[in-house]
């Protein structure tokens, strides 16, 4: 069963992962009640390590930072060349340099720490390739918002146990989460229960398999603010008044 209030907070983490300056990033995570630990940035990747109020560690991975003028991100992140990583095949764009991000997270957190991982868009797919880089016993929850189709079936099959701890969230007819649209090499999603958000009023459908999501062509549905607003509406509805 999904804890919707916890999922709403995780959506805020995925959104806050886009904040670039350390000071502003610290403030954004502090507003969620997290202790900001450190931020990783290079020319095409960005992530924040934080600890929540219960002591759980989170790695929040940003998506493509085109809106911040990082146009090189767009070129690099959309490279669809099949690439082998531990356990299967993914696109070059999704895995390029991610060994550095996960190594940084593992070396920054105390040894043996279980790390929950989240992200939006490309960051969502990047959180799903964690089993190739993070020991299985150190992967907590994986929560992904708006993941495009950058992972092949063999990777999901190889790491099936880890993917039982994945919560994928897709919104309405999200055009970018539907990408690549016609490339037959990349048409698969995690075969696990998936949240399909349908309206600002909290309408949703639980899919038993992410491959049941029909996709679509509405690119405004990809905005992380929209994902956050819709999950927050469900969380608010799930809070019942005291008797």
> Care to count the β-strands?
10
Mean pLDDT: 93
Radius of gyration: 17 Å
Structural classification: alpha/beta
Which fold name fills CATH's third level, the topology? Rossmann fold
Helix content, binned percent: 25-40%
In one word, what is the shape? globular
Q: What share of the residues does DSSP label as strand, in percent?
A: 15-25%
What is the CATH-assigned architecture? 3-Layer(aba) Sandwich
Largest sheet: 8 strands, mixed
Order of helices and strands: HHEEEHEEHHEHEHHEEEH
Strand order of the largest sheet: 1-2-3-6-7-8-9-10
Number of domains: 1
CATH class: Alpha Beta
Instruction: Give me the number of helical elements.
Output: 9
* Poorly predicted parts: none
- In angstroms, what separates the terminal alpha carbons? 23 Å
The CATH superfamily label reads Alpha/Beta hydrolase fold, catalytic domain
Characteristics of this structure?
Rossmann fold; alpha/beta; 9 helices; 243 residues
Notes on the structure:
This protein has 243 residues and is of the alpha/beta class. It has one domain: Alpha/Beta hydrolase fold, catalytic domain (Rossmann fold), CATH 3.40.50.1820. The chain contains 9 helices and 10 strands. The strands form 2 sheets. It has an 8-stranded mixed β-sheet, sandwiched between helices. Strands 4-5 form a two-stranded antiparallel sheet. The radius of gyration is 17 Å and the shape is globular. 43% of the residues are buried.
